[in-house]
Amino acid sequence: MLPHQLHFVSLIVLCFTTLAFGATRLPNDEVEALREIARTLGKTTWDFNADPCGQEGGWANKYQEKGSENAVTCVCNNTVCHVTSIVLKAQNLQGSLPPELTRLPQLEQIDLTRNYLSGTIPKEWGSMKLVNISLGGNPLTGSIPIEFVNISTLKSLVVEFCHLSGSLPPELGSLPAIERLFLSSNNFTGELPATFVELTSLKDFRISDNQFTGKIPDFIQNWTKLERLVIQGSGLSGPIPSGISLLKNIIDLRISDLSGNDTTFPSLTSMKGLNILILSSCNIVGQLPDQLGEMTNLNTLDLSFNKLTGGIPPSVVSLSQIDVMFLTGNALTGAVPDWLLTKSARIDLSYNNFSVHGSCQQQSVNLFGSSSMGNVSGMVSCLKSFRCPETFEYFHINCGGDEATLNGITYAGDTDAASSASYYQSKSNWAFSSTGKFTEDGRSPKSYTWKNTTKLTENIQGLYTEARLSPLSLTYYGFCLRNGKYNVDLHFAEIMFTAEKENISVGRRIFDVYIQGTRVLKDFNIEDEADGLGKATVKNFPAEVNNDTMEIRFHWAGKRTTGIPVKGVYGPLISAISVTHVDYKPPSEGGKSGTPIGTVIGIIAAVASVIILVLASFWWKGCLKRKDAVGLEEGKLLELVDPRLGSEYKQDEVMAMINVALLCTNSAPALRPSMSTIVSILEGKSLVPEVVSDQSGLVYEMKRKAMKMYFKDTAENGISGSQSMSIDGPWTASSSAADLYPINLESDYLMNRN
């Protein structure tokens, strides 16, 4: 063979030798271990004809979507490779945890987050040199193996959103390198082991939604490297240890729903770097401390549902980075600072005792019920300016959805987008107030309503395909109600978790329900009550109205999963509300009677025409130049009623019709309601806006006299011909808020009209 031919053959042999060598650089024992691991996990997409370390053949995705990573990683030298990391997030794995991991001697990371792996955590893993164990979002049972104390290299143990139970092994206090310990949303019991005092390397500790007992231990003050501490709905009681002030590196502190006695506001003066401070439902009494103003990095402040008194300290103005502030459900008093009303942040001051007047929402500040405590009338102060068209005996709401009808009942649409601190008032006799921010929200869209886009397990369209959500507290408020006994129907369907096998096993939602201030449902789980996901359930309750108002509140107490199927899925969810007086009978059943709507509209149109003609005559004579002040006295208005009726009429209905007629004759178009609004008012679906007539008192008096003359002439001489209006279908109000709500009498608009 010629020399150049020999050289060519040598190159070919060397090339094939290199390829063969490269294909077998992962030891056979590790390849076989991966086969067994795949079988145990239920992983079917690994191609064992490809190199497990080559990132081909299903061993790694080229384009990793965050939260759904799929990758096997190796470390290689010139002669051999070893598997160091297996990350299989949200891969729909339905097997169990593999003890065979021990056959991968250099494995440092196992991440199986958000799968559907069952069974227990293998104690065999305790002999490994793992650095990161992430098993969150799997329906695992049993306890944390005591053998884990031998993993001296372990820095992160994440077992949140599982079904683990039992006491925490005291031996875990001997983990010298642990930095992250996530235990939330399990069924752990007992006290936190005293040995945890040794976990001085901790940077992130989360134990929310468990059944622990005892107090928050004082030893947490030893965790001086701690950056995040999350204890919400854990079962632990207060008070918050005073030594917490030693944790100078904290940037995220969340403690809520503590049982126990009242306690004062903890000293947090050393926590200058705090970004998130949540101390909700912690039985904190006393005044807001000036130290809050020193936390200039704060973007989230939640001190809701405590027993705080006094005013808002001036130092709070220094919180220039604040994004949301919740002071809901305390007993704060005094004036609301002007600077607070001008901040761009979402601020909720609802359910306090401030001396505030005006609307329920000012800029981005929710003031609903902010001055209602001690209000014996029961009417929320910011609603007092609204006139009731009549005394209602019901309200029905399709929460989060459009208007819908079920079993002959029409449920009003409720599609307002809402926000972290918002108030919404309908055109009828109900409103809602929403408080709370979805933390670490991974939902799309990031909304306070939700629409199911998949097929539900039952044919429950209409009321149940959409719902309203809240991350903390949602209150529906009915007003202008007849006093007496009511039936309250609350409609639910879990539509954020699908009805597939996997989601039944991991996602859990729990919240409380209050009616008229009394808790009627504790730890309510829609899925359990409906016997499955995507199924409807209706909870019925008796209730009593004594002050014309009904309050229904849904409250999250820090329990159950917050990150399944994605982060931000938790808190109350309500599909529909139906509230009906026990004696109410629909008109078709011989209930409330009245003048047909078409006839009423015809009368109003005729009256308006007469008034316009009379006013034109007065204007021609120059009578409108006077500025006599004539009050809107109900007695004078009732003179318009046909005396032949005697007392056989409902005064509130008559006043509604008269006020509508007066509104319709305003000279300024902006002050006249739309026809759809008129119909909605006369049907009793909307409130009568305050009558803001022309500023000339004489004009108002002329209108009243013109109407009286018209009705007198009609009574004496009759009306030739007939006047009627045909309404072929149901009427719905479509007017904007500008149509409905009156302009303030002291507004610049009215001042500058002349």
List keywords for this structure.
17% helix; 22% strand; signal; Leucine-rich repeat, LRR (right-handed beta-alpha superhelix); Jelly Rolls; membrane; LRR_Rcpt-Like_S/T_Kinase; 754 residues; glycoprotein; receptor; six-stranded mixed sheet; globular; alpha/beta
- State the assembly state of the protein chains: single chain
CATH topology of the domain at 388-581: Jelly Rolls
Tell me the name of the CATH homologous superfamily of the domain at 388-581. Galactose-binding lectin
What would you report as the Rg, rounded to the nearest angstrom? 34 Å
Question: Could you say which overall geometry the principal axes of the C-alpha atoms support?
Answer: globular
Which CATH architecture of the domain at 388-581 is right? Sandwich
Distance between the termini: 114 Å
Transmembrane segments: 597-620
Catalytic activity: L-seryl-[protein] + ATP = O-phospho-L-seryl-[protein] + ADP + H(+); L-threonyl-[protein] + ATP = O-phospho-L-threonyl-[protein] + ADP + H(+)
Enzyme class: transferase
Domain Malectin: 395-577
Descriptive notes:
The strands form six sheets. This protein has a 15-stranded mixed β-sheet, with no helix packed on it. Strands 24-25-23-37-31-34 form a six-stranded mixed β-sheet. Strands 26-27-30-35-32-33 form a six-stranded antiparallel β-sheet. By secondary structure, it is an alpha/beta fold. A hairpin with a 2-residue loop joins strand 21 and strand 22. The C terminus is likely disordered. 40% of the residues are buried. Among the domains are: 155 residues, Ribonuclease Inhibitor (Leucine-rich repeat, LRR (right-handed beta-alpha superhelix)); 194 residues, Sandwich (Jelly Rolls), CATH 2.60.120.430. The chain is globular. The protein contains twelve helices and 37 strands.
